[in-house]
Design brief:
Length: 253
């Protein structure tokens, strides 16, 4: 990716976040790969002085490299929550499992890394709010969407599980339900397209050195169980993940 294209992408996404025109995701200016998209994220975050409160992590398929995006700490709140019109233009939502980092992270090279990681994190149900600073996110390439923080617009967190109430292999294919104003949007067994939620967290901790990396106090959301859905203003959403307390939120009218 040329320096000029890189600078243009950063400038267009910054302008959109500052109330200017939405960014045009031209194919000719597409980030040259995941690393380039992450570099754009880092530059935008630095220019905004973003306070990072967490991460979203994923893969487009099981064989693809890991990607991730920082989450603005000011947009991470507890359920029940109401998102105002000014906070989300598109009103997208996904039901996921997130992990709160409760203590210092173990070294990824430790022989008991997974056990030690499990001991310092707490899972909880989460809604990821999805929005875009892109003019037409439906036609934008995956790399453009990744550069736009993978379209993240915050997290809504439910009740944490007890420390002794879960195992790392849990949540591989839980029964989930997502309803809008009492009508089902998704209801049945769910599965991530790449890994277990805890496995995605572990991969992020192993790999991410982006924007300072994962830190104690951060919350990491690990991928959608229900796919991405968009809702009308005024809709109230309820998410249920087997073994977890239901979570609710509303998009303001």
């Amino acid at each position: 990716m040329s320096a000029a294209r890189h600078a243009k992408a950063i400038a267009s996404l910054l302008a959109a976040r500052r109330g200017g025109p939405l960014a045009t995701a031209d194919a000719a200016d597409e980030p040259a790969g995941i690393d380039a998209a992450h570099d754009i994220q880092a530059a935008v975050a630095a220019e905004l002085g973003l306070q990072i409160g967490g991460w979203k992590v994923g893969r487009w398929s099981a064989d693809d490299p890991l990607f991730y995006a920082p989450v603005d700490a000011t947009l991470i709140r507890s359920a029940p929550d109401t998102r105002q019109r000014s906070e989300t233009r598109l009103r997208g939502l996904e039901l996921e499992i997130a992990f709160r980092i409760d203590g210092p992270l173990p070294s990824p090279t430790a022989p008991d890394f997974l056990d030690r990681l499990a001991a310092v994190v707490t899972p909880m149900p989460a809604f990821e709010v999805v929005d875009a600073r892109l003019a037409d996110p439906k036609t934008a390439s995956p790399l453009w969407r990744l550069a736009d923080f993978q379209m993240n617009a915050g997290l809504i967190l439910g009740e944490p599980l007890r420390k002794d109430g879960w195992k790392p292999e849990d949540f591989a294919n839980p029964v989930v339900r997502l309803s809008a104003d009492g009508k089902d949007v998704a209801n049945g067994p769910a599965r991530l397209n790449t890994n277990t939620p805890f496995g995605m967290l572990a991969d992020l901790v192993r790999e991410c050195r982006h924007c300072g990396g994962v830190q104690p106090g951060h919350v990491v959301t690990t991928g959608s169980f229900t796919g991405l859905n968009f809702f009308a203003a005024g809709a109230t959403l309820r998410g249920e993940i087997q073994g977890m307390t239901p979570i609710t939120m509303t998009f303001a009218s």
